[in-house]
Each structure stands twice: as C-alpha cells, then as structure tokens.
Write a structure and sequence with these properties.
Strand content: 15-25%
Shape: elongated
Structural class: alpha/beta
Number of domains: 2
Radius of gyration: 21 Å
Strand order of the largest sheet: 3-9-8-5
Distance between the termini: 51 Å
Number of strands: 9
Length: 165
C-alpha cells in the first residue's frame, strides 16, 4: 500500500526504513561519540617495504588521527561557523594516547572527553600489537577515534556553551 505525503509517494518499505533510521538516530549519541579503527602498524608495513628501500617516518598516533578528524570537521563547517568558533569557541586539546596492553583493555576503553574551563581534552585508547602475534592479530594498530561528526558538533555547539556573542 502506498502512502501519499504532499507531492511525494512513499512505499511501505520506505516507511519501515524511516522508522528504522529514526530509531537509530534517537540513540545517535551512542554511535557518534567514537569510532574504533584497526589498521596495520608501521612495524608490520616496514617488514614488507623496507627491504625494497622505502623509508619510514614515525608511527602515527591516535592523537594525530584525531587532529586530522578535527581538521576535517573544521573544513566542513561554514565560514560563519568557523568565524564564531575562532572568536568564541573553546579549543580542543588532544592528549597523548592511553596505551592499552591487552585487547580486552582496549575494547573496554572509550574515547575520553574531559571538558574543562579552557576547552575540551580528548584522549584516545590505543593498542599496538607485535608483528609476531598469531591469529591474524599481529602488526595491528587499534585506536578509538573522534568522529568528524562529533568534532563538528563540538565546533558548532558545545565549544560555545557559556560564551557570549
């Protein structure tokens, strides 16, 4: 059965899809606060490419990826939002990674947000596995990261709380 709404016609399937998305979005804060990522560690890539003469810099930290996420959010914001954030917003401070020693400790940890009088402090749980670890888990770097959407939310809203225009 079709449902008519204004000039648009939607099928029962789209009604179900809208219900599902509204249910998910009602709980958005649980999904947008952090993202857990896994990528190959510098050490694992070096083992393959260094014999070919490829030179490497330092290992990338979760802190650096979080900074890149925040930069991406700033670039997605409008000029007005950027101007307001630059003049009134409280800055974000990315702190050194919180190094975890086990997979369970990393899974149980979350991205830490600490709002202070001077701004927002963000700390990422991190786990780097040795290349010799078995079961396909070796040579990995795990990070809990700031999502660009959460960064943009901070830029547009949270960083302005308590400030005057």
């Amino acid at each position: 059965e079709e449902v008519t709404e204004g000039d648009r016609i939607r099928s029962p399937w789209s009604e179900q899809g809208q219900w599902l998305m509204s249910t998910v979005l009602d709980q958005y804060s649980d999904y947008l606060q952090e993202m857990g990522v896994k990528f190959k560690s510098r050490q694992a890539i070096m083992e393959v490419l260094e014999p070919m003469g490829v030179e490497f810099g330092n290992e990338v930290s979760c802190l650096e990826v979080n900074q890149a996420s925040f930069t991406l959010a700033l670039s997605a914001a409008t000029d007005i939002v950027n101007s307001r954030f630059n003049s009134r917003g409280k800055p974000v401070y990315f702190l050194e990674d919180d190094i975890k020693l086990t997979d369970i400790a990393w899974v149980d940890a979350h991205l830490l947000y600490n709002i202070t009088d001077t701004g927002l402090e963000v700390t990422s749980p991190s786990l780097v596995t040795d290349v010799d670890v078995g079961l396909g888990l070796g040579g990995m770097h795990y990070c809990k990261l700031l999502t660009p959407t959460r960064a943009l939310e901070y830029i547009m809203i949270d960083s302005l709380v308590g400030t005057q225009p």
